[in-house]
């Protein structure tokens, strides 16, 4: 489900369920949080195995959710992605292939988002009567602005890597996203940490996360 390779200054975290397009289960979310939280390296590089970055939440799990269990699942995802955001290390997302739903939310939780030309992004939950409830409703507008956030979320449309860069969803499009992690890792670790903290801590996270959980539970009151 997850593989980790430790190098001198970069921890490489690979979402490793290519047969499921690296979809995240509750256990996968916990493992991801631990992998990023426990890193001793100044930079963590997160990417996906196979043809996708991450398809988001495993739909086999989502289909079993109810109005009672959905908020707990949302909370588990929020806790995991908050751990990514709060990590001591700078976290780089290398998006190659599809990022969908919770996969977009995972990328948004990372400090730097880099895409290959083959990357695509979408928030398709609206077509199924749900939405990404892992912190995306606060992170997406902060990254791309209200207009693009509403467009992506309410339409469910897919955008390519260059469009994502123009929106601000990613900062670079390159054939070698891992090289960006190496670039960051050459800098002073303490400076990376303090800059990350100062640039990140600018909004009320707990209040918006609670609103997400409540709305997600209401949507799944009668199941998917």
Automatic annotation (TrEMBL):
Specify the domain of life of the species encoding this protein.
Archaea
The UniProt family comment states:
Belongs to the enoyl-CoA hydratase/isomerase family.
Q: What is this protein called?
A: Enoyl-CoA hydratase/isomerase family protein
Query: Any transmembrane segments, and where?
Result: none
**SUPFAM superfamilies noted in UniProt:** ClpP/crotonase
Q: Name one GO molecular function term.
A: catalytic activity
Which Pfam family name is an example for this entry? Answer: ECH_1
Output the PROSITE patterns linked to this UniProt entry.
ENOYL_COA_HYDRATASE
Q: Which residues form a coiled coil?
A: none
């Amino acid at each position: 489900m997850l593989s980790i390779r430790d190098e001198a200054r970069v921890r490489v975290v690979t979402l490793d369920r290519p047969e499921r397009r690296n979809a995240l289960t509750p256990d996968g979310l916990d493992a991801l949080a631990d992998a990023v939280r426990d890193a001793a390296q100044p930079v963590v590089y997160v990417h996906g195995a196979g043809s996708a970055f991450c398809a988001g939440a495993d739909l086999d799990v989502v289909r079993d959710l109810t109005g009672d269990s959905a908020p707990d699942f949302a909370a588990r995802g929020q806790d995991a992605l908050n751990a990514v955001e709060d990590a001591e290390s700078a976290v780089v997302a290398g998006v190659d292939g599809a990022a969908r739903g919770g996969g977009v939310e995972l990328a948004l939780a990372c400090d730097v988002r880099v895409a290959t030309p083959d990357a695509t992004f979408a928030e398709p939950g609206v077509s199924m009567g749900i939405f990404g409830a892992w912190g995306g409703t606060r992170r997406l507008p902060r990254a791309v602005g209200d207009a693009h956030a509403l467009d992506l979320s309410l339409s469910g449309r897919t955008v390519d890597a260059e469009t994502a860069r123009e929106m601000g969803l990613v900062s670079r499009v390159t054939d070698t996203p891992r090289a960006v992690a190496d670039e960051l890792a050459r800098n002073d670790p303490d400076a990376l940490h303090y800059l990350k903290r100062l640039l990140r801590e600018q909004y009320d996270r707990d209040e918006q996360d609670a609103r997400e959980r409540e709305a997600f539970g209401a949507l799944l009151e009668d199941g998917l």
